[in-house]
Amino acid sequence: MRSKNNIYLRQLEMKDASSLLDLKFRNRDFFQPFEPIRDESHFTLEGQEREIANGIQGALSDQSYIFGIFLKETDKVVGRIALTGIARGFFQNAYLGYYIDQEYNGKGYATAAVSLCLKIAFNEIGLHRVEAGVIPRNLPSIRVLEKAGFRHEGLAKTYLKINGTWEDHAIYAITAE
Fold first, then answer.
1. Which helix (H) or strand (E) holds 10?
2. How far, in Å, CA of 134 to CA of 98, rounded?
3. What is the pLDDT along the chain (177 residues), one digit of tens a residue?
4. Are 134 and 155 in contact (CB under 8 A)?
5. Which of 63, 87, 110, 147 is most buried, most CB within 10 Å of its CB?
């Protein structure tokens, strides 16, 4: 899916593994305060291929959809966005997670990617609700969610183990209507 904001989303493919690895290496210190501690195998080509393979399998089983965020001009991967933990039935919900290369922060790419991902979630995948949790001190990510129309729903105490510490997360959500 393409955006007027110079980016597009597409599901990650095996050919993207080396670009994704490069992105993660260059941003490792930048991302770490907001991510789980990962085994060193994650930072290998094989680790990225496993992640992409899991994403492909997740889409085939309608459990998750993982997209690369690409620049239109160069097709360079500048981030990743995912809908995971998809619940069907009477819930029709997914969890949203994303990251953008530090070099491209502050240019509106994250907000554009979230907006594009929501169109896919609601119009193509048929979800009713998308939820995102964000560490309260991650103000740029909160701004992205608010600009994309998410509403603050509350605080989940000790929600996820991030960078070795159980962290509270502000819960944001948006529904199809």
1. strand 7-11
2. 10
3. 555 579 999 999 999 999 999 999 999 999 999 999 999 999 999 999 999 999 999 999 999 999 999 999 999 999 999 999 999 999 999 999 999 999 999 999 999 999 999 999 999 999 999 999 999 999 999 999 999 999 999 999 999 999 999 999 999 999 999
4. no
5. 110
Phi, psi of 63 (to 5 degrees): -105, -25
Determine contact, residues 91/112, Cβ cutoff 8 Å. Answer: no
Domains of the chain by range and CATH?
7-130 (3.40.630.30)
Residue among 74, 90, 91, 134 at smallest CA distance from 110: 134
Assign 3-state DSSP to the chain and report helix, strand, coil percentages, each to 5.
40, 35, 25
Cβ burial of 91 (10 Å; 0-12, 13-18, 19+) is exposed
Total Cβ atoms within 10 A of residue 12: 24
Query: Which residue intervals of the chain are DSSP H helices?
Result: 17-26, 28-31, 45-60, 109-119, 139-147
Nearest-angstrom CA–CA distance, 6 and 78: 11
Q: Work out whether the CA dihedral 113, 115, 120, 126 comes out positive or negative.
A: positive
Q: Report how far residue 66's alpha carbon sits from residue 141's, in angstroms, rounded to the nearest whole number.
A: 18
